Amino acid sequence: MQDSSATLPVILTGDRTTGPLHLGHYVGSLKNRVALQTTHRQYLLLADTQGLTDNAHNPGRVRDNVLEIATDYLAVGIDPNQSTICLQSHLPALADLTVLYMNFVTVARLERNPTIKDEIQARDFGRDIPAGFLCYPVAQAADITGFKATVVPVGQDQAPLIEQTNEVVRRINRQAGVDVLPEAHALIPRVGRLPGIDGKAKMSKSQGNTIQLSATADEIREAVRSMFTDPNHLKASDPGCVEGNVVFTYLDAFDEDDITVEDLKARYIHGGLGDSIVKKRLEDVLQALLAPIRDRRCALARDPGYVLQVVKRGTARAREITDATLRDVRAALGLFTLSP
Fold it and tell me: Beta strand 151-153 with 41-47: parallel, antiparallel or unpaired?
C-alpha cells in the first residue's frame, strides 16, 4: 500500500467463503469495490470464520472456497496493489474484538435484526440457531471497526448489519468517553438486491438460483432462458408486466443502455414484444460482461501460487492494522494489560 493512501477513506467489505461468487455479489458490491479502489483504502475480507457459523459440519467447503473467492476478486478487476485481500481466520484481533463487543449487544437485539431474521427463516433453523450465526452482526461489527472503516459497499439486504455496527460503535465510544471507533455508512448500489433467476427471494448460493461469475457461455444461456418473467404473458401480443419480471430487473442492473431498456419496457407493457427477444437482449449483455471475467479467471487458475501469495501479503498487512485497533479499544475501555 502506498503511503499516500493513509489519508484516504477506508472501505471494509468481503464475502463468506462458502461458494463461488455470482452476479448478485457483482451488482451488490463487487462493481463498487473495483470502482472505489483508486479513491479509497480498501480491505477485502475472506470471511472463512463467519462461513463456519452455518457450515461447522462441513469445514472443507469453507476452506476450499478461500482461494476460489480470492480468484474471483482478482478476475473482476480488484488490484492487490490498491486493495488488500486478507483472510479473516488469520486476524486474531477480529475474534478478540467480537468477544468484547458481545458485552455491548443483547440477544433480543440480535434476534430483531432483519437480515438475521430472514437468514434464520431461509435456513429453517427454528430455535436451533448456532450461536455463532446469531452473533454474526457482532462479528461483522468487529470486522468493520477492526479496520476503522467508514464505508461498507453492500447490497440492500445487508444495510441492517451496518446499522447494528454503528450501535456497537456508539456504545463503545460512550463507555470509553472518547471516539475510539468511527461510524460507517452503507454504500448501496442502484440495484441493491438481485432476485434469483427463479424469481424467488434474492440470488443466493444456498438457494441454487444464481449465475456464477465463472459461468460458461452455455450456462449463462440456459440460466437466462429459464428466468421467471410474467406468467400471464402467454403470447407476444399480450400486454406484459415489468414489475417483478426478473429479466427486466436484470436488464436494469446490467444493461448500460437505459434508453433501450425503457423502450423495451414500454413495448412489453403495451403488448407486441415476446419474452424471447427480451431474454436475448439480456443474454447478450451478460455474455459481454462475464466473458472477460471468465477469461481472467482461467488465467489466474493456472497460477494458484500467485493468488496464495496475494492473500498472504494482504493478511500480513491487515494483521498490523487490526492488532493496532484492538490495542486502541482495550486502552480506551481501560482494560488490564500486562505490558508496561
Answer: unpaired
